[in-house]
Amino acid sequence: MSRVLVVDDEPQIVRALVINLRARKYEVDAAPDGATALRLAAERHPDVVLLDLGLPDMDGVDVIAGLRGWTRVPIIVLSARHASGEKVEALDAGADDYVTKPFAMDELLARLRAAFRRADPGPGAAVLETASFTVDLAAKRVVRDGADVRLTPTEWHLLEVLTRNAGRLITQRQLLQEVWGPSYGTETNYLRVYMAQLRRKLEPDPTRPRHLITEPGMGYRFEV
Fold first, then answer.
1. What is the Cα–Cα distance from 165 to 88, expressed in whole angstroms?
2. Which residues mediate DNA binding here (predicted)?
3. Integer Cα distance of 12 and 152 in angstroms
4. What's the DSSP call for residue 208?
């Protein structure tokens, strides 16, 4: 049975999450502050953490940093903070996803399932199949309509980073440093150009992408 750690100081939200998660057979622990969250994470070893940023004793980003010092457990941030800069800060600190309050429970549960899949991808993880194309990460091959898609090395590297983190929002800085190197971080025009090229080659309708999704001001997400 999968275990979720809910970290939030709003009792109504905690109660709603606990009820919904337990109804779906998750084991749930709850923490009202950052110190309790870090202690419970060390004791109970959750499979996913749902984390509010506005905690009474410390900022949620500090909790992320504390967790990332010893675990790669998926962290989904739940926060009323809408500024993209704060979202990017949490993601750069090591969060895997970000859901803005108020949120639809169905959307949150879908993000949670995606986090579990990333944590335990299973034996077929090297091949991702979408309705439009297939990515074979081991063979470094993309097939669409039965034919190989020719990608440049940079296009492949960008697609590889996104598909290996399917469902996870990757910040612009993370993508630039992963694909172009650690000295890059602000050249967002590179991402716009190469994402447009990938969409032309892979998306059925590049103007309305279904798989290569932009989160304005933040980064990109690959959706199967």
1. 16
2. 125-224
3. 50
4. S
Q: Tens digits of per-residue pLDDT, 41-50?
A: 999 999 999 9
Assign 123 a pLDDT band (cuts: 50, 70, 90): low
What tokens does 205 get? Answer: 């309708």
From the candidate CATH numbers 2.40.160.40, 3.40.50.2300, 3.40.1190.20, 3.40.50.1820, the one assigned to the domain spanning 3-119: 3.40.50.2300
Q: Are 80 and 54 within 8 A, CB to CB? A: yes
Q: Please state, as a whole number, how many other Cβ atoms lie within 10 Å of the Cβ of residue 82.
A: 9
Residues 87/81, Cβ–Cβ less than 8 Å: yes
| Architecture of the domain whose range is 127-222 | Orthogonal Bundle (1.10)
